[in-house]
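Hi, here's the filled form for the chain we discussed.

Project: internal
Contact: R.S.
Residues: 149
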Amino acid sequence: MSCHEIAALRLGLMSLLGRDDEAERQHELAELAGAADQPGPLAATVAARDLAGLQRCFAAAAAELETRVSATPASDAQLPYLRTLVVLCKKVELDLDRHVAGLGRLYADLETMHDLVHEIYPPAEPADRGDNRLASLASSTLLPPRPPA
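And the returned structure, exactly as it came back:
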């Protein structure tokens, strides 16, 4: 029994996260048993070049698994395992979506914070570049007054 979808996702994440663990990579490739070399969503998940692509490819691999499970006869001894794998893949897909959305929020928050810094400390006009910036910072309403020296 193998979890091809999970192994493919781990390989795709390893690449995107910059993890360079050859033993771990070989372990996941062995789990895939050659599926990474066959055209389809598993190979595409392994080769994903960005998070959006990873999400799409993993979702396609999970959908392919669901199709495979729906065609599996009720008498097949692996059916309970395959059904469990479908549930696992759905949970992982939701987690991946949540993490990517969180990174998207972080990206947007960085811009908001960057803008706030420029509101607090507006860029100096070209004629003001020689002024004492510390004095102007201390007079800001966001900073407490400096004690007398």
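Let me know if anything looks off before we file it.
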